[in-house]
């Protein structure tokens, strides 16, 4: 019903590939669209708007000693759409260590929340929010995407093929802010909101840059609307994708052996920082792969240093606002990596987040329909068995929340990465072979890409 990729389309560039594709697409379908426009003015899925729905009963988020830092974003498929047994198993996995859980208001598992002006359909969002509540989440909502009628489409219909590439029209920014306020009132346990997703629809083709002006205008209206609902609500943006290029291509304010960040991205962030009404945190996302070759440089583990470099820059530019990574990706497409290697590279990225002082990092959980393989998922669809990412997330939530005191420990082999706090450490073998190393004065033997946890301090 809601055709979005289980894995986020984070590598889609709005330029120049999109421009070329757009020209080709226009040439191919212009005649068809003209004919369709004369024969049928409506397009997309017809909405079936239910009677007024009562808001779900949601438990208050659990009290935690520290901000958990780590969490997941629910995507197109999650356990709320699976069997009761799988839902129960997934709820248990997520609740083991209460973590952040994020959901978009439209798309990625949620239908159109306002198919026609003032007429709402929160059935999907209610169901997803209820599962998050049942699994002891600290809930987060991403305010994306927008109903078709706010984007020039037909009221009462949803064209999912365009939903994730189009922003609301300026004349509907107030309508979108009103929708955001309606969502905040419906789910009062949610105190953290991210505004929009990856600047979707905010690319200025003529100027060949991000339209930070339009985005910031929308952000400010949403910010004001949410604060009127509850001044304690925390709002963040701009949630722009941090693209980077081969280090031999151009220069920018932020670069390293892993590549050179596109300066247009940095310019957009700085514009938002300067012109925003307010913010409790700054949000970005990104991948370790370059735009040119889809490969991480200098290798998959070394490329995770990008996350620390960007975080440091964001904290400096924003006046040390808390930094959120709404999404992060470390695996190129179609690599054939084992689940163990995926977890090992993910753990290395999480170490970078912790060391650089990231406040929040959300794993984009690529759950699929309850059948077949589910690479990189937190649990097995259709069965509910936990996968390696489940234990990795739980371990980091427990031992490395936001204010965890990090300590330096020595390792005899630099191929073993380690992150430590006074009572626990996590180690990662970054090679595809067994090795032995002395870490923190103790000998350890690692299988290929093995992650090990070890107690420190007094027993």
From TrEMBL:
Membrane spanning residue stretches: 15-36
Biased composition (Polar residues): 44-56
Keyword Mitochondrion: no
Domain Glycosyl hydrolases family 39 N-terminal catalytic residue range list: 120-244
InterPro entries: GH (IPR017853), GH39_cat (IPR049166), Glycosyl_Hydrolase_39 (IPR051923)
Entry-linked Pfam families: Glyco_hydro_39
Region (Disordered): 44-69
Keywords, in A-Z order: Glycosidase, Hydrolase, Membrane, Transmembrane, Transmembrane helix
Family per similarity comment: Belongs to the glycosyl hydrolase 39 family.
Official protein name in the record: Glycosyl hydrolases family 39 N-terminal catalytic domain-containing protein
Taxonomic source organism: Nonomuraea recticatena
